[in-house]
Amino acid sequence: MTFKQLVWKMAKSNKQKYIFYYFCNSFAVMFFFLFATIYFNEAILATKELESIEDVLIIPGVALIFYTIFFIHYAHRIFIKRRKKEFSLFMTLGMSNRDVLKLLLMENSMIACTALVTGILAGTVLSRLVFLILINSVGLDRVPFHLSFPMFSYTALTYLLVFIISIAMTSYTLLSSSLTVNLKSDRYVENFKNRSPLLGAFGICLVIGSSISLYITFLNPENQNDSDGLFLLIWTIAIIGGLYIALSQCMSFMVDVAKKFPSYYFKRVLFFSSLENKFGNMTAIMLLVSVMSMVTIFYTSMVLFFVGYEKEQVLNRNPYDVVYIQSGLDNNLSDEEIHQIVDKKNNPLTKYDKIRGFFYEEKDLYYEDVYYTFFFLPFSDFTRITNYQGTLDDNEYIYYINENPDYAYMDESYSNGIEITSNEREFHYSLKDSHIKTALNLYHTNYLVVTDSEFESLRATLSGMNMTFHLLNIKDWQKSERMVEELRGALKLQEDSKFGDYVYSKIEDYNRTIYSNSIMFFVTVFVGVLFFLGSFFLLYLNVFSNIEQEKERFQKLHKIGITKKEIKQLVNKELRMLFFFAPILGSCLAFVYILTFAKDGGGLMENLNMLWSFLIMSGSYLFIQVLYYFYASKKMMEKLKFH
Fold it and tell me: Based on the structure, what is the number of domains in the chain?
């Protein structure tokens, strides 16, 4: 019998093991390829530095490397553990170590090549589907789907490198172990032996210290040469590395602490022993689930915050739903025409107001092509839209800045008095007050408020542009896109003015904002969805990969007197630890990153919406975990036949 025939016979007799192993490898390839389609997308590459997307991709990039390494190695270890007995049996029949190694390499090479091809094909189809869904749902047409050579090459090279290292490690373990140990491998229970309480304490300190260092160093004004990305990379690696050490040894540290209180410890000695053993043997899975949930919660929270923040900024920039500016006789619509366009039955007009304006340019006496601009508002109209409390004399003016006070810039040329000379009269005004508030949609920033009588004198004396602001509010501005287009169409029928047809609406500003940040939005949504699916697949793999061994273990427990009720409680305790401890830990780590990134906007207390976004997404994630836990528990009981 040739090696190929032997491999084929083993595959047919152990098809469930081979199929499970193949799907795990194929999923790992698909998962990495999906991320590669984002990382090497031409539109994203073109704006990485411009929109700080490179920093955004550091966290999932590091997490993906850890995920690929641990996931492939974990799946390979499960597969080899199930096959050790078969390989040892071949060796007792006279097969040499070289032949066993050749057999191992042949079957794994076949699985690797098949998984690589199908994983890339599945990743191509799924990434295309995700692109279409996101583009059609939120209109992100700035991120076209395409395939490139780096997507395939990096995926293949990374997978093959990790796969070869895993095979080398397991081959060494298999061939260096005795035949007796390998033949009884399916009877051995994995016990955690390498306990080190000091190492556990070190891991906990490393996670805490790295988190604090990340908060201090990232987005620090003293950083030089744009080193924020480097600090983010270093401390993310340190956090994940410390998390691995902590998860593998923290329970040893906790047990040692509990032993200092004998009355407390000995009542719970079985619980502590079981928990320590579980944590030691499930370190890789706990780490991956923690990291995956961290990335998912962090990125979905940022997306939710981004949408809410941009909407809030649009509302702040646009006090009115629609503002259109009539300049002279241009863009002139009657009130009846405006109501016909704006006042719709399903979205009626709720407010309509007008204010006057006068725009004047004065040429510099000494410098050619230099003009001074003045935009005047009458005091009565100004007080109506700003609720300004105060008085104004004819020789005074108010310097009004139509801007958010946090970002307002005062032009000194408007702060030291105004002098305008014409053939008929000289106008002299002294500064009475300055007022900063967004009261008009941001068409213009600097306005000069004079008394109504002076405003009429300016209009009558100077050769400028008379303007009227039409201020419109409707019931639901988010449904006003078609109405705004209709208004623009009606204004375009009028004679073109020097300034064009001015229409400023909330819906257009919101769409422009979303579009200008669409690549960042697309990347965060894509990464969040990707890691969410990855964490759930990982949990499913861990729960149901060793179902036969678990079934045999619980049957033995039942034979020695453990009741079915007690077995159910034991199963549920183990599932709860896996389904809730790691996601809660991931939520805490996600909060560290939320707290750190909030520094860019003045801190978390200045961005409470970011905190609420985190609480909503982490709560939603844990709620889904609860549903998934009940499903897995029910499925587990059915497979164990404990109804």
Answer: 4
